[in-house]
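User: Show me a protein chain along with its predicted structure.
Assistant: Here is one chain, sequence first, then structure tokens.
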Amino acid sequence: QVQLVESGGGLVQAGGSLRLSCAASGSIFSESTMGWYRQAPGKQRELVATITPGGSRNYADFVKGRFTISRDNAKDTVYLQMSSLEPEDTAVYYCNLKYARDYWGKGTLVTVSS
């Protein structure tokens, strides 16, 4: 059974940085596309970034080069390095694993103060 556990969220001032981590259990991590999504209050969940098993990355336009997604297959962990954070980045960030179906973590809250 796949379980995803996010960590690294918190309160940061505008312009600051955070690194989110998502640890996956199960044996399919290295074969799965991993992603980060976010949901701000009153808004729909949206894609932030994805990374394929081969390391190809895709980013939402709003990332604008500020975020970097990476993965460590030896640790079954995916990361999201976020810099130049803006108040508009405030949201719950969710980890996603795609392998035949979608698996989701419970999310980690990122709050960016102005």
